[in-house]
Amino acid sequence: MRKRRRTVHFMAVSGLLLATFGVGPIGEALAQQRPAVVVTPGSARTFRAAVQIFADRSEIPEPNQVQVFHANVESALEFSGVFKLVSHRAFLGPVTSASLDHGPPMVCSDWSQIGADAFVEGELIRGRELSIEFRVWDTARCVRLTRKRYKQPLTADQGFLARRVADDIVASFIGMRGVASTEIAYVSTRDGNTEIYVMSADGSRQRRATRNGSINNFPDWAPNGEGILYTSYRHQNRPLLFLSSRGRNRPGRLLKRLGGKRSEYRGVFSPSGSRIALVMSNLGQGPEIYTVRADGRSLKRLTRSRAIEIAPAWSPDEKRIAFVSDRSGSPQVYVMDVDGSNQQRLTFQGSYNTHPAWSPDGRWIAYESRIGGQFDIWLIDPDGELNFPLIEHPRNDESPAWAPNSRKLAFSSGRRGRADIYVVDVNGENVRRLTRGSGENTSPSWGPFPR
How many domains are there within the chain? Predict the structure, then answer.
């Protein structure tokens, strides 16, 4: 089998595991036994939003503060894929908001006539802290959908607050929060070492999460957003699980109770955070899938075969786990009950299928599939009845990771000659590159909604 230079999701740091997988006549034959229904996703509806520049009610206004905040809100709304913006040049009403409590009454026709489905007005007050208050209107029905206020320290990131406002505007129209205020963890070699990085979901504020000079891979967010689980080779050059923390979670090695003689290739938190799906192997044996509590107790082995068993992904109800096995002759996606029973093959198209990721709403499992010599991102339903390519490109697209609202995915792609992190809407539209500069950027993990 021709090995790829960048198969990080299949233990790129372990040549033994990569060499074990092969695509031979058995695997190709089995792939033809059960063709899935292939469908093409349609276009999602978008709304048009007219966003006023918020009124600055500060005693001493900061120059350009409201303009910068406005630009950040509009950028986050565009990132959502839910809204397109109405230019200020088309406004019949004022460009800048009046007082929310003492201003003139809302004239919905001024906004519906220019094609705006949503109208957003607000005000900003800078004092001992920064206060933002805003209202969202449905112009067609002339109904106020929401009114909210946020406060934060003056030293906090105002861009985050603008993204959170935008996410609330999205929620007011579709009943589901946007994800501009969330974060994505990923692996990068930009500084010479393989370290874990974090960035805002729109690609801003890229910074390191680890600085240990070792090989660090497979980041996975804690469900509360206060830590990142990852694999590191910092201890005796053996893969073990570590936690990077910015909250109450204690950083460092996570599963000390398991000792240090076994290789812990990858860990994935359950949606509740109570358990971890673990890829682990004893010396001289292939990797198997286990579940274990975060304190290292209640270790349970789920797979038992001579095949390579890796890449676990929890269902949102924690009742099932998707994983990858080469037991059929080539890597394919399987699903099993959380106790290891009822193991069933899910993918039958493509000679090499890997890296499953279960959508938070439970509807889809994203995975990467090699068909025609390249890897593309596909979606399949958990019963295996519907299966279709989300995005196709002559260069490899790999490692899908779902946004917490199930409306977007992040993935790694070599379409510019080296690996970068991209995002795409669940209908395959609005592809956007997030990482730029030097180094390889791979293995995205999309974090939870901020609390």
Answer: 2
Classify residue 67 by its DSSP letter: H
The predicted pLDDT at position 35 comes to 40
The predicted structure's pLDDT at residue 44: 61
Which letter does DSSP use for residue 267 in this model?
E
Compute the average pLDDT of residues 193-207.
96
Residue 39: the pLDDT is 39
Does 189 lie in the same domain as 168? Answer: no
Q: From CA 288, how far away is CA 18, in angstroms rounded? A: 15
pLDDT-derived band at 392 (thresholds 50, 70, 90) equals confident
> Domain range spanning residue 23?
8-33+182-446
In the chain, the largest separation of any two C-alpha atoms, in whole Å, equals 75
Residues 233 and 156 in one domain: no
pLDDT in tens, 91-107: 999 999 999 999 999 99
Nearest Cα to Cα of residue 187 among 206, 160, 159 = 206
pLDDT value for 377: 97
Rounded Cα–Cα distance for residues 273 and 276 (Å): 7
Report how far residue 252's alpha carbon sits from residue 232's, in angstroms, rounded to the nearest whole number: 10
**Alpha-carbon radius of gyration of the chain:** 24
Tokens found for residue 96: 């800048």
342 exposure class (CB count in 10 Å sphere: 0-12, 13-18, 19+): exposed
- Cα angle 360, 362, 365 (rounded to 5 degrees) comes to 90
Joined together, the tokens standing for residue 279 give 């890829």
* pLDDT, average across residues 336-349: 96
Q: Do residues 332 and 307 touch, judged by C-beta distance below 8 A?
A: no
Domain boundary among 174, 195, 219: 174
- Token pair, residue 221, equals 């967010």
Two tokens, residue 438:
């030097």
Residues 237-280 pLDDT 10s: 889 999 998 866 678 898 988 887 889 999 999 999 999 999 99
User: Which contiguous run of DSSP H or E holds residue 74?
Assistant: helix 65-80
29-33 LR contacts (CB < 8 Å, sep 24+): 30/328, 30/329, 30/330, 30/348, 31/330, 31/348, 31/349, 31/350, 31/351, 32/348, 33/348
- CB–CB of 214/201 below 8 Å? no
Question: Helices (DSSP H) in 142-205: which residue ranges?
Answer: 158-174
Specify the pTM. Answer: 0.88
Residue range 38-66: mean pLDDT, rounded: 82
Mention every residue, 6+ apart, whose C-beta is less than 8 A from residue 387.
36, 37, 38, 39, 347, 349, 378, 379, 380, 381
State the burial class of residue 24 (Cβ atoms within 10 Å of its Cβ: 0-12, 13-18, 19+): exposed
